[in-house]
Structures are given as C-alpha cells and as structure tokens.
Design brief:
about 100 residues, 3 helices, elongated, mainly alpha, single chain
C-alpha cells in the first residue's frame, strides 16, 4: 500500500508549507485562514497515519489506536474546514468592501 506513505508525506509537507506561510504573513485574518488550511492538512496526516498503522500491524492494539487517530484526524479536518469557510467569507467581504 504505497498510497498511505505517499499521503502522509504529502500532507505533512502541505502542513509545514501553510505554517511557514503564517509566519510570512502580517495580516491576522489571513493568518487565521491559513492556519485553518493547515489544520485540514494536519487532520489528513493524522487520519492516514492511523489507518496506515492498522494496515501495517493488524493487531487489536493497533486497531484501537488507529481508530483513535482516525477520529482525532477527522475532528481536525472538520474543524479546519469550518474555520476555512468562516475566514474565507471574512476575507471575501474585506476585499469587496
């Protein structure tokens, strides 16, 4: 299963990219929007890491830990998605005004 390691590396790279973008930006609203996008990438990383661990080990302990990671990752992605929508609307309103 090459898809899990590839997704893990890609999502952590995107997460680090967004975190560097936060440092380079001075606008607080843009920083919050970028941080929300970073949260989505972090959630994807945690979710695929949990799934990968279960596929690799296939034990009951790995199943419980994998489920925990998947739930936490999905929570991160949902929260990041909601914040991205909210701050995206705020940025759009600011540009229009």
């Amino acid at each position: 299963m090459i898809i899990f390691p590839l997704t893990i590396v890609l999502s952590i790279t995107i997460y680090l990219y967004f975190k560097v973008q936060i440092i380079r930006t001075k606008d607080p609203l843009h920083q919050e929007h970028t941080n929300a996008k970073a949260r989505i990438a972090l959630g994807l990383f945690i979710t695929t890491f949990g799934a990968n661990q279960y596929v690799f080990y296939q034990t009951k302990l790995a199943l419980f830990i994998g489920i925990l990671f998947i739930v936490l990752g999905i929570m991160q992605m949902v929260h990041g998605y909601r914040k991205t929508k909210f701050y995206g609307k705020q940025l759009k309103e600011r540009v229009e005004a």
